[in-house]
Amino acid sequence: MCRRDGGAPRIATMPPSLHLIALVAKLPDVADIVLTTLNAKYIHAAFGLRYLLANLGPLQSRACLAEFDINQRPLDIAEILLAQNPKIIGFGIYIWNVEQTTEVIAAIKRVRPDIKIILGGPEVSYETENQSIVQLADHVITGEADLKFAEVCQVLLERRPPARLDEASDSKHAVPEAGAPLPKIILAELPDFSQIALPYDLYTDDDIAHRIIYVEASRGCPFTCEFCLSSLDIPVRQVPLPALLEQLRRLLERGVKQFKFVDRTFNLDVDASKTILEFFLARYQPGHFFHFEMVPDRLPEALREVIAKFPPGALQFEMGVQTFNEEVSQRISRRQNYEKLEDNFLFLRRETGVHIHADLILGLPGETLESFAAGFDRLIALGPQEIQVGMLKRLRGTPIVRHDAEWQVIYNPHPPCEILQNKLIDFATMQRLRRFARYWDLVGNSGNFVETAPLIWSVGQASRLSPSKSEMNETGKMPVLRSPFAGFLRFSDWLHARTGRTDGIALVRLMELLFEFLTGELQLDARQVAKTLWCDYQRGGRHDKPSFLKNFLSTEEKVIPLRKTKTALPKRQARHLV
Questions:
Q1: What is the mean predicted confidence (pLDDT) over 83-87?
Q2: Nearest to residue 205, comparing CAs of 251, 245, 246?
Q3: Do 338 and 251 share a structural domain?
């Protein structure tokens, strides 16, 4: 995988489907430094580790990158890493991989306690000292380690400190003079982008063919939302635009079709974001797909003009709404202009082909079930193709914890540390909402039920948000509401009672359950429901008519012509275009 003989570094990714012997066969050489992480999925390339590798300088030829995913067995990962006979292993630690990585490191330290383990990443950059994984490691670099990792490796390998290591501002984290041991916790100062080597040449041809290609135009966030780690990354810093555009041009020439920008506020600098969008527009080819995280209430005319020129499906905007409750927004220090937000959503849906992925958070302090429901319905009316309903997470370092006592917030102690209950929403209700979020992703977001999903709330739904006696009307029944949230929550409760599960439901089986709910529980016309389901089924290019639909469809039922661009775009987004 990598070499000590001065050759170029190699990168190996470990698809979980391959046998361990086949994986070991891909690693012909050894390395002094191994950079590694456990990605959430194989398709996710480790962007941060590529930055570290690109900035190792003279040590780069002695280093390699090995990527795994969280579905692989920790002992197998440890075996592959130990086979490289490394002196240093650097691990990227995130909320989704910390538990599995702890097992990997524990095994490595049992077998080879002499190997130096260096940790970095957001999960170990805050509340560091008391974590089990930190206790196993030799060193932790907190913050952005693009340059600091190379400095630490140089000290460990050469036994001498480079110039910058003694510049740490915090004496607790400062590196001692030559001959003294490195501290356990090492603070990385914010690097200057003009000194950072960009990592894009380290994407391999296999990465380009099979994985998500991450890029960034800026780091940091000017906002102070208390649930988010990005609120701690101040100030916002831009990558030098000429250098970035040159790298993007080279990636396009290598055949990259899909770019995912990781900037938290891509449209903060309007001039820079406009320049990048115009760069892609001038080079657009069918199948190109560009993902950006946008500030939802900031879409001036200069950006609107260029956005409207992109063909349908080429752009995806992730828009973090989080809550429509203004009192809650103020409580968590979130600044948001809802009037501008709604105007921007309506512009994007009416005048562009942008695919909108909007975010809402369940469990924010002060958010009642009723106010979340109202916010969900308000967002549905704005027409985003996807609404990610996320559970509030207790991320290390975020100031959201200052509300825990007042709002009696209880989190799961195990990653991803999601909320279990608070003063306003008890555990049982939070579990219902967790299922709601999962089923919404399967039905509302997947693109498999674009026409069918609205049928779920097409008739008055009995509100089951807080089924208490005080909410009953004089007849002893629940009041009737025509609400997408109430309608889908009713379906969610029904589906869980019917199946007892939130995963492993095959598409055709889910279709059949939807048909049963719509025709049985809601008493909708079976032929119309069948026709709608059949239209949706074909969005994925499927033409094998499910057997449960055949008795309700005429033989003349036509096949939907699919857009020519469909097969070149991500499947989920493409289904929303048909």
A1: 96
A2: 251
A3: yes
**Can you tell me the distance from the alpha carbon of 341 to that of 530, in angstroms, rounded to the nearest whole number?**
36
**Rounded to an integer, what distance in angstroms lies between the CA atom of residue 384 and that of residue 47?**
28
Radius of gyration of the chain, Cα coordinates, nearest whole angstrom: 26
The verdict on 164 and 79 lying in the same domain is: yes
Residues 137 and 224 reside in one and the same domain: no
Name the 3-class secondary structure at 142: strand
- Both 167 and 217 in a single domain? no
Question: What's the one-letter identity of residue 326?
Answer: E
Is residue 480 helix, strand or coil? strand
CA atoms within 13 A on the CB side of 153: 28
Beta carbons of 465 and 359 less than 8 angstroms apart: no
Same domain, 140 and 236: no
Residue with the two structure tokens 């380690």:
145
How confident is the model at residue 554, as a pLDDT?
Answer: 82
User: Rounded to 5 degrees, what angle do the CA atoms 421, 422, 424 make?
Assistant: 115
Q: Are residues 161 and 80 in the same domain?
A: yes
Residue listed under structure tokens 């938290």:
264
| Residue 153, token pair as written in the block | 């490796």
Mean predicted lDDT score pLDDT of the chain = 88
Contact 386, 344 (CB under 8 A): no
Q: Which residue has the tokens 């946008």?
A: 294
- Identify whether 338 is part of a domain: yes
pTM value is 0.87
Confidence of residue 230 (pLDDT cuts 50, 70, 90): confident
Cβ contact 515:533 at 8 Å: yes
CB distance 244 to 287 below 8 Å = no
Tens-digit pLDDT profile for residues 395-446: 998 999 999 999 999 999 999 999 999 999 999 999 999 999 999 999 999 9
Q: Determine the straight-line distance between the first and last CA of the chain, rounded to whole angstroms.
A: 43
3-state secondary structure 243-297: HHHHHHHHHHHCCCCEEEECCCCCCCCHHHHHHHHHHHHHCCCCCCEEEEEECCC
Full domain range(s) for residue 302: 212-401
CB 150, CB 193: distance < 8 Å: no
How confident is the model at residue 476, as a pLDDT? 43
Phi then psi dihedrals of residue 420, to 5 deg: -100, -40
Query: Partners of 360 in the beta sheet?
Result: 322, 389
Q: Is residue 116 part of a domain?
A: yes
